[in-house]
Design goal:
This protein has 761 residues and is an alpha+beta fold. Helices cover 33% and strands 12% of the residues. It has 27 helices and 24 strands. The structure holds 2-acetamido-2-deoxy-beta-D-glucopyranose (12 copies). The site of one 2-acetamido-2-deoxy-beta-D-glucopyranose has 6 residues, from helix 14. This is CPAF-like PDZ domain-containing protein.
Length: 761
Amino acid sequence: MRSSALLALAGLLTLASATPVAPALPHPLPQLQPKPVRARQDDDNSTAPCAQVSQAIYGNDTSPRPASPTVPAGLAYECIKSIPLNATSAKRLLKEMPAYLNWQSTLTVLKDPPSQYAEKVQPAVDILGGLEKLAADIDAGTLTLEYDFGWALYTLIQSAHDGHFTYIPDVVGGIFSYGRTVPLVSVSEDGKKLPSVFAFSDVLGSQFKNITYTPSPVVEIDGQDVAKFLENWSQYGSLQDRDALYNNVFYELAQVSLGTSGSGTGTFTGGGRGRFVYPGSTTTLKFANGTEYTMQNYARVIQSFRGITTGEELAAKWFFYGASTAEAQETVSSQALAAAPPGYPTPIVPGPSNLINGFYINAPGYEEYAVLQVPNFVGDAFAEIGFQNTSQTFISRALADGKTKLIIDVQANGGGTILQGYDLFKQLFPQLDPYGVNRFRANEAVDLIGQSFSKWASQFPRLATGNSSVKQIQGAYFDYHSDTTVDGEPFESWAEKFGPVEVNGDKYTTLARWNLNDPLITWNSGGINITGYGPLANVSQTAPFKAENILLLTDGYCASTCTIFSEFLTKQAGVKTMALGGRSNKDQIQAIGGVKGVNNYQWGYIQSLAASAIRIASGEEKVRLNSSVLRTDYYSDVVFNRAASAPGVNVRDGLLQNDTSGVALQFIYEEADCRLYYTPEMTVDATAVWKAAADAQWGSSGNCVRGGGYGRREALEVTANLEPRRVHVSEAAAIKQFEAFESSLSLETECKLKGDGFMYP
Ligand SMILES: *[C@@H]1O[C@H](CO)[C@@H](O)[C@H](O)[C@H]1NC(C)=O
Ligand SMILES: *[C@@H]1O[C@H](CO)[C@@H](O)[C@H](O)[C@H]1NC(C)=O
Ligand SMILES: *[C@@H]1O[C@H](CO)[C@@H](O)[C@H](O)[C@H]1NC(C)=O
Ligand SMILES: *[C@@H]1O[C@H](CO)[C@@H](O)[C@H](O)[C@H]1NC(C)=O
Ligand SMILES: *[C@@H]1O[C@H](CO)[C@@H](O)[C@H](O)[C@H]1NC(C)=O
Ligand SMILES: *[C@@H]1O[C@H](CO)[C@@H](O)[C@H](O)[C@H]1NC(C)=O
Ligand SMILES: *[C@@H]1O[C@H](CO)[C@@H](O)[C@H](O)[C@H]1NC(C)=O
Ligand SMILES: *[C@@H]1O[C@H](CO)[C@@H](O)[C@H](O)[C@H]1NC(C)=O
Ligand SMILES: *[C@@H]1O[C@H](CO)[C@@H](O)[C@H](O)[C@H]1NC(C)=O
Ligand SMILES: *[C@@H]1O[C@H](CO)[C@@H](O)[C@H](O)[C@H]1NC(C)=O
Ligand SMILES: *[C@@H]1O[C@H](CO)[C@@H](O)[C@H](O)[C@H]1NC(C)=O
Ligand SMILES: CC(=O)N[C@H]1CO[C@H](CO)[C@@H](O)[C@@H]1O
């Protein structure tokens, strides 16, 4: 398992791609002349689009490759669209995918989701039916290009809007990624008027009272109404909630603060999943004052194009159809994150890599507030202990300093280590037992792996001191000794844990909960013990803050482990939520807009589980397993060879405590207790967000869009323009920080093969 983990990681790291460099909007706005792309002439390879890409990068054969080459997006698109479909390979891929898709816990429900989900969140999607249709289209000859096939496959999986569930074909994410150069924001002038869209650089300028013109909102993009355009574009994101998706289009401090594990300057500029979408060769913004600005969109070139003259050659070199071995890749190295994030004050207790930081609000009248900013639950493996220690240290420091109210700011939190979510909850509410019930989809492979793992693991005592070969098996879900029943009791056999139980037309495993007292808990927690359990059982049972003195602040981008944590806080402890941003309307919005599944696996881990189950079996069982689906369905590597990065599935559904519906949390729609619009200041100064949140939650001048006062007003006006306003950072410093960050961003992060709860940006 370990060696395949390393292979998978190595493959992933070669695909590091940076977020676009986003220069300030120039003034006056120049009219850009799109570079004419010569028409493709099939008989002259030197002018074929892929040859032009090669020439654009290398100039001639001897010049070295630039560090992060970019070419015009339109040229890249013509090149990628010049690769004919290898129907044999495509059909093999479609044939091998269902074995992995069967692990997707929501596969059946996605076809016919609960009506509230279908109405307010996302429409139904038939994933397996979609694969069959693709195969039929190939047979019928209607899919003839690699790109058209890859894009259809990508969007089929993406339309599940489950951030754990991804398949990024080589042709979609392995050769080029795309971007626009102008980040946008959606802000309400005063927190009351409906938000409008602005170029971020305009807002930056207006905040520093240092521009000579009055910024004007964007009213159209490429001739389409701005809201329509951006709501449509937002749907390419990873989240399920539409307001959260809309927020993710824009520049946001919390995302930027995360560097490599965030979605950069927003999907509009090719951050997050926006990088996979061709944005057209240019994009034209039309402002309310009549000015138009056309930007040239670009493509980042991920692989070497040296010597490439045609799409066929590109495919032969970089697509692993199964016939050839790819040569060593020239890679764009990703820089370690170092810079302090723009817009944040100096933390009182700093945490590792800006994954967590403790702040106070340094402004008169806000002395009682502490802010624990948690934009991540450790999506990479190296910060677990420091992460836990940051909240431990900050909470006791805040209490000692007389803070009585705590804002937990989880903007941009795509999750991370599941048990860090449990631990942070227990630090805040030691007297409560986190419920966290979950289930797998009960497919045959799950059962066979469980039989093998449980039998083998039972030979050895379950000890923290066991060697890693034993812990790999004992620490997995498939040893029934891991986890407990709903009532916190041990399972008595694999058969009891597997079930299956029939619920709403599908079969699932018996509901299970993490056993936080398990001696192997550190195997799954990345090293931390869980507050209140095992070695940390003997902690104070007094909650440091009352539930009504805690606020959970989100931008909707709360996924995976973040949703586990939120569920505990809101349902079990009764903490209130506040959601920022959203589409330009007066409706209530959800606080939690990212995947609510509670564990993702990479397909590579599933393949290694299948192989391990056969390997550790003996005698007749080995023969039986070796002729089962574990061998027939998980042996081929084609699903990995045709992917640009490690594919993933959501394997565990989360369910409500005391649930009787059997409906996974993923499909439950739930509005935030309060909604706040972003204001211009909030896009450059994190403290402005916290002050507004504190005022709305505990002050007398709340700005909740509804429920807090403004919803009762007759009419809200759309923000017309922005008056220059002053904040406490210098413009030069803010822009410098912003640029330093931009150049250090890359969007693929390291990952833990066995999953945890992290949604990759
Ligand atoms: C162009 O490339 C194709 C495929 O690589 C090749 O078959 C053809 O001979 C080339 N044409 C010229 C004029 O070099
Ligand atoms: C190749 O490109 C390099 C760098 O741009 C340049 O210095 C060199 O003169 C070029 N060689 C030819 C033969 O064009
Ligand atoms: C197409 O893919 C198959 C493997 O599925 C491979 O054997 C064949 O060489 C590929 N064809 C081309 C033209 O690369
Ligand atoms: C119109 O608004 C845009 C965007 O804020 C700005 O760049 C431009 O300078 C404005 N034009 C005029 C004539 O004020
Ligand atoms: C956006 O709109 C275009 C054109 O109407 C459509 O083809 C595309 O599927 C839409 N995208 C999404 C993600 O809905
Ligand atoms: C926890 O953080 C504190 C304060 O930063 C530090 O003094 C202490 O050594 C850390 N402990 C661990 C276990 O990292
Ligand atoms: C780990 O322990 C098991 C059981 O004692 C033993 O069979 C195996 O050889 C050990 N593996 C290593 C690498 O020490
Ligand atoms: C967790 O507890 C075990 C057993 O007491 C201990 O050996 C280990 O150091 C603890 N881990 C951390 C990170 O404190
Ligand atoms: C931990 O246990 C010891 C006795 O073993 C006890 O004296 C102490 O009060 C306990 N601490 C807490 C915080 O419960
Ligand atoms: C499993 O079966 C395959 C053929 O289907 C055979 O090549 C392989 O050696 C077998 N492996 C084991 C461990 O029996
Ligand atoms: C679930 O039921 C138990 C027992 O009635 C109750 O104590 C608990 O608060 C309930 N949990 C939720 C989230 O309603
Ligand atoms: C365009 C503009 O007004 N620039 C000014 C911004 O502020 C700095 C410092 O106050 C001035 O030096 C610039 O001239």
